[in-house]
Amino acid sequence: MSGTPALEPGRPWPLGASWDGRGVNFALFSAHAESVELCLFEGTQRRVVPLGERTDQVWHGYLPDAAPGLRYAYRVHGPKAPQLGHRFDAQRWLLDPYAREIVGRFSWPAHDDPAHCLSGAVVDDAFDWNGDRPPATPWSETLLYEVHVKGISRQHPGVPEVLRGTYAGLASPAMIEHFQRLGVTALNLLPVHHFLDEQRLVNEGRVNYWGYNTLAFFAPEPRYAARIGGQTVIAEFKAMVRTLHSAGLEVILDVVFNHTAETDEWGPTISFRGIDNRSYYRLPAGNLAGYENYSGCGNTLNLAHPRVLQLVMDALRYWVEVMHVDGFRFDLAAALTRDSAFLGALRQDPVLQRVKLIAEPWDVGPDGYRLGRFLPGWSEWNDRFRDDVRAFWLTGEAGVGQLAQRLAGSSEIFEAAGREPQAGINFITAHDGFTLRDLVSYQNKHNELNGEDNRDGHSHNFSTNCGEEGDSQDPIVVEKRRRLQRALLATLLIAQGVPMLQSGDELGRTQAGNNNAYCQDNTLTWLDWRNADGELIDFVAGLVALRQRFPQFQRRHWLTGAEDAAGQPDVLWWHPAGRPMRVGDWQSRKLGALGIQLTPEATAGGNEDVGSPVLCLISRDDIPVSFLLPEGAWRQICDSSSAAPFATIRREKTTLVAARSVQVLTPA
Fold first, then answer.
1. Residues 433, 507 share a domain
2. Taking the mean position of all CA atoms in its chain, how far away is CA 606?
3. What pLDDT band is residue 111 in, cutting at 50, 70 and 90?
4. Would 55 be classed as within a structural domain?
């Protein structure tokens, strides 16, 4: 290290540490710093050199002959005046916000000793993509599959043990076989940006399993890397994407730009806070020593600042252009839209325009619920679908009118802004909440293992235990649960909009009633493949195949009731008595059954079934309901209650819809 040449002036762009083949350029933004030092590590040796150049609030320098693998951090000098919003501490070794690879492991309490601090590492972005091309699945044909990188393969017997729980394991042949068997088109990965475990969890012997505590927005989380043959974390992630793409699967990242792992004023100073606290975070006007907390996690990133907005945009482009991902789901996305140009910046960006953008359209701040208020080009998690469908099937708190709105794509939420049905991401369950099996097995949450006296997690889940809390051997209870799970899945996959499955629901996975298992990195959350419900997997795969076979379920435009050239309306709502639904029917609190008949859009084509209407009959009643069918002969192609759900049966004039079930019919 002693022979390291002095820094040359370098340039203020791009931000971060950039290797050009002959040396490395370092550039760090800080509007309020008084001076910045670059810290270089090699084993136990370190060298501190000043970044003497400053251009437009960017401190920069160039190190000749430096190469990938070089470890580095910063020390930033400035006022330590929390009352003015400044929290500089020149004794801290600070992580570059643009670091591509993180070296070291953070431990509590936070250390000033460089032997224990996190540092960035210079990387070489070269990788043989072998002609990789994104699947570019149209939104109307997309089926999302929400998955935890570790949890899905950690116990899979078909995945080599050394690969279980890793990026490489996610892309292993056994996993791809399952994804293709189901028919899903996109994997929505829970956070894979480098994240930290909160001090409280570490003190209690737990971890942040979900990963919603990001520290570094450019760096893939190393705990999910197998590192076989010395492969780097970045190379393993890229290889995973390349393999999934070759199997026709898109990769969507769950990203957390609403807050960072530095938490509140009592949290650790690791990066942003020590570099320029007043720029990076939203601070209350009347209390610059505190933080605005729209995330519920202690702080909120300040996307109203141009350089912070640039950080987010640069990170998103990096994951698309360099890592080849296909889109993003933005956690607590409402926090990103407050007083910022974020939505407009994304809309005009030539790289990000072409990828899938999904918002979780709320945060915990004032006016934080913003479902339906994002721009065209965005899709949003539709919690109204989740709640109304659950309430219809499980608690009776929603009627046929509410169910119909969800089946039709929630047009009252999304259509007014000029958006299409694909603006809504429909789901029954997700990572935060009950699994599908638990949704019909538990009346109440059971989160005692989380160490918060069962205070955490939602208490109103529209769930039912079907007569007995938890596991049951009662055949009546077991059958009711079986039917309700299948009815919920069928409803999801016949509805307009984009469906999302939570991984493991098709296996019959349980978390023993824990609806907030964010800190459970163990067999409670890892998928139990050895005890998977094979019949349920086949049922889900059959439903997905049915959805893909009939474009009537994947319409690109809204249902209107208008007739086509043959006089057939695009949608017909059907009463069990054999007539169209009437105003009074929609208002009935007793009616628990209805039908929806769909005809294809004029542009649809591709197989003999496309031109035919599809009739879906739904009944939540406790006894079978007889439906008079529309004129003509029909064939039943799906009965969610049946032991042979996809057997074809001819129906004349009437059909009997079993209790708590969904039937799908086409003209005979």
1. yes
2. 31
3. low
4. no
| CATH number (domain holding residue 160) | 3.20.20.80
Residue 567 has pLDDT above 90, yes or no: no
Residue 50: strand, helix, or coil: strand
Task: Report yes or no on 275 lying in a domain.
Answer: no
Contact 55, 25 (CB under 8 A): no
CA-to-CA separations, 565 to 198, 573, 611, in angstroms, rounded: 62, 20, 12
Number of domains in the chain: 2
- Output the 3-class SS for 251-290: EEEEECCCCCCCCCCCCCCCCHHHHHHHHHECCCCCCCCC
> In 3D, which of 416, 462, 421, 418 has the Cα closest to residue 442?
462
pLDDT, average across residues 372-400: 97
- In this structure, are 587 and 464 located in the same domain? no
Positions annotated as catalytic residues are 331, 360
Burial 152-172 (b: 16+ CB within 10 A, else e): bbbbbeebeeebbbbbbbbbb
Cα separation, 46 vs 38, in Å, equals: 10
The two tokens of residue 517 are 């298992």
260 assigned to some structural domain: yes
For the chain, give the percent of residues with pLDDT over 90.
92
Residues 521 and 610 in one domain: no
Same domain, 255 and 403: yes
For residues 32 and 34, what is the distance between their CA atoms, to the nearest angstrom? 7
Pairing of strands 16-19, 23-29: antiparallel
Q: How far apart are CA 596 and CA 21, in angstroms?
A: 62
Cβ atoms of residues 556 and 422 within 8 Å: yes
- Rounded CA-CA distance 533/535 in Å is 6
Which is nearest to 100 in space by CA: 28, 17, 214, 223? 17
Q: Which amino acid is at 600?
A: P
- Check residue 179 and give its pLDDT: 98
Statement to judge: residues 596 and 542 lie in one domain: no
Give me the count of residues in the chain.
Answer: 668
Q: Vertex 305, ends 314 and 56: CA angle to 5°?
A: 80
Range of 611's domain? 559-667
Q: Is the dihedral of CA 551, 556, 559, 562 positive or negative?
A: negative
Assigned token pair, 478: 């077991």
How many C-beta neighbours within 10 Å does residue 337 have?
20
Paired strand residues for 328 = 253, 357
pLDDT at 105: 85
Using an 8 Å Cβ cutoff, are 276 and 30 in contact? yes
Q: Distance (Å, rounded) from C-alpha 234 to C-alpha 100?
A: 8
Whether 532 and 574 map to the same domain: the answer is no
SS (H, E, C) 593-651: EEEEEECCCCCCCCCCCCCCCEEEEEECCCCCEEEEEEEEEEEEEEECCCCCCCCCEEE
pLDDT one-digit tens code per residue, 583-619? 999 999 899 999 999 998 875 454 555 568 999 999 9
Residues 6+ apart with CB under 8 A from 646: 542, 546, 637, 638
Query: Domain check: are 541 and 590 in the same one?
Result: no
Q: Which residues of 94-118 are buried (b: 16+ CB within 10 A; e: fewer)?
A: bbbbbbbbbbbebeeeebeebeebb
In angstroms, the CA 225 to CA 169 distance is 9
Do 235 and 352 lie in one domain? The reply is: yes
Contact 627, 595 (CB under 8 A): yes
DSSP class per residue in 331-390: TTGGGGSTTS-HHHHHHH-TTGGGSEEEE--B-SSTT-B-TT-SPTT-EEE-HHHHHHHH
